Amino acid sequence: GTLATGGGALKTLEQFIIEREADAPGSKGQFSRLLRDIVVAAKIVDRDVRKAGLVDLFGDTGDVNVQGEVQKKLDLLAHEEFVRALRRGGEVCLIGSEEHAEAIPLLFEDCQGKYVVLFDPLDGSSNVDVNVSIGTIFSIYRIPDDHVGRVTMASALQSGRKQVAAGYVVYGSSTVLVYTTGNGVNGFTLDPSIGEFLLSHPGIRTPERGRMYSVNEGNYNSWEDGLKEYIKWMQTEAPDDTPPRPYTTRYIGSFVADFHRNLMKGGVYIYPANARNPNGKLRLMYEANPMALIVEQAGGRAETGHGPILDVEPGALHDRCPVYIGSRDMVDDAIGFLSGER
Ligand code: AHM
Ligand code: MG
């Protein structure tokens, strides 16, 4: 493991955020406070996730108390914890969440905050009740100067390039928070015994090529030909290739967990357009964009099939987009097949 032991220096996420603030004079601390609010919310959601399996055993434990509705409840609980933390902090005037119905953003009146936060509070939540990894994804924008004091949803509708920060938390065999402020990517592992995230993955770089591809192959028949050919190519034996084909499939069905594994080990994650869903399934603003910023900052690539995800101009909070994301050379391969160049 990379956690320093035996008297080595352990850097907490709190310390890291404060140090980075000193590197960026003029930020007045509002942004650092916002990050710290998100960290607190992540710890609370982690606690809720970790006890989710006990709810059925102990019945009425408070917030999550209706048998059979645990999974839905945990989505909502995570949403509420994040909203509470962000509202308390006062740095955020507008929140967009996957769990907030019908595209209604949460707009705070008389808000002096400079930031917008868009998030998916509990991604992959169909995996909750079978004890498989889930996650939280967040994206932070600065409110344009001429919108301050009269913030509307339009204040949030900026391309992913304009994100000032993005991150995710994966509630896996351990809880890891990974984020970027556009200056590299760093990962922190929660030490539950002290309740602190510790810097465990400094300066993450994703391999240029990995061994794994992640896609729901059950949808094969609805794919465009280029994607079918790409997947077939990866499955075709070629012992002299580097790495040797066939590649390996890994698909958890939690975007955060699939993305995190591929980021660390190298790989490509695909959620393509298909006949029924011309823009795929994943949401641009709080799933694709934050992961795209992270992967580019780690040396990888993120495409829709028609250009970089980060260049897509959003039309609405809950827009979707096709996603080809991960190791640079693997996304290059995919785009090559899609465009018919290969
Ligand atoms: P959710 O936000 O409702 O959980 O849906 C998004 C999830 C992703 O985490 C995951 O990668 C994808 O949906 C899986 O979809 P599918 O079951 O179609 O493969
Ligand atoms: Mg989701």
TrEMBL record:
<feature type="binding site">
    <location>
        <position position="251"/>
    </location>
    <ligand>
        <name>substrate</name>
    </ligand>
</feature>
<feature type="binding site">
    <location>
        <position position="281"/>
    </location>
    <ligand>
        <name>substrate</name>
    </ligand>
</feature>
<dbReference type="GO" id="GO:0042132">
    <property type="term" value="F:fructose 1,6-bisphosphate 1-phosphatase activity"/>
</dbReference>
<dbReference type="Pfam" id="PF00316">
    <property type="entry name" value="FBPase"/>
</dbReference>
<feature type="binding site">
    <location>
        <position position="120"/>
    </location>
    <ligand>
        <name>Mg(2+) 2</name>
    </ligand>
</feature>
<protein>
    <recommendedName>
        <fullName>Fructose-1,6-bisphosphatase class 1</fullName>
        <ecNumber>3.1.3.11</ecNumber>
    </recommendedName>
</protein>
<feature type="binding site">
    <location>
        <position position="120"/>
    </location>
    <ligand>
        <name>Mg(2+) 1</name>
    </ligand>
</feature>
<feature type="domain" description="Fructose-1-6-bisphosphatase class 1 C-terminal">
    <location>
        <begin position="207"/>
        <end position="335"/>
    </location>
</feature>
<keyword id="KW-0479">Metal-binding</keyword>
<comment type="similarity">
    <text>Belongs to the FBPase class 1 family.</text>
</comment>
<comment type="pathway">
    <text>Carbohydrate biosynthesis.</text>
</comment>
<feature type="binding site">
    <location>
        <position position="216"/>
    </location>
    <ligand>
        <name>substrate</name>
    </ligand>
</feature>
<dbReference type="Pfam" id="PF18913">
    <property type="entry name" value="FBPase_C"/>
</dbReference>
<feature type="binding site">
    <location>
        <position position="123"/>
    </location>
    <ligand>
        <name>Mg(2+) 2</name>
    </ligand>
</feature>
<feature type="binding site">
    <location>
        <begin position="123"/>
        <end position="126"/>
    </location>
    <ligand>
        <name>substrate</name>
    </ligand>
</feature>
<keyword id="KW-0460">Magnesium</keyword>
<dbReference type="InterPro" id="IPR028343">
    <property type="entry name" value="FBPtase"/>
</dbReference>
<feature type="binding site">
    <location>
        <position position="122"/>
    </location>
    <ligand>
        <name>Mg(2+) 1</name>
    </ligand>
</feature>
<feature type="binding site">
    <location>
        <position position="98"/>
    </location>
    <ligand>
        <name>Mg(2+) 1</name>
    </ligand>
</feature>
<comment type="subunit">
    <text>Homotetramer.</text>
</comment>
<feature type="domain" description="Fructose-1-6-bisphosphatase class I N-terminal">
    <location>
        <begin position="11"/>
        <end position="202"/>
    </location>
</feature>
<dbReference type="InterPro" id="IPR000146">
    <property type="entry name" value="FBPase_class-1"/>
</dbReference>
<keyword id="KW-0378">Hydrolase</keyword>
<dbReference type="InterPro" id="IPR033391">
    <property type="entry name" value="FBPase_N"/>
</dbReference>
<dbReference type="InterPro" id="IPR044015">
    <property type="entry name" value="FBPase_C_dom"/>
</dbReference>
<keyword id="KW-0119">Carbohydrate metabolism</keyword>
<keyword id="KW-0963">Cytoplasm</keyword>
<feature type="binding site">
    <location>
        <position position="287"/>
    </location>
    <ligand>
        <name>Mg(2+) 2</name>
    </ligand>
</feature>
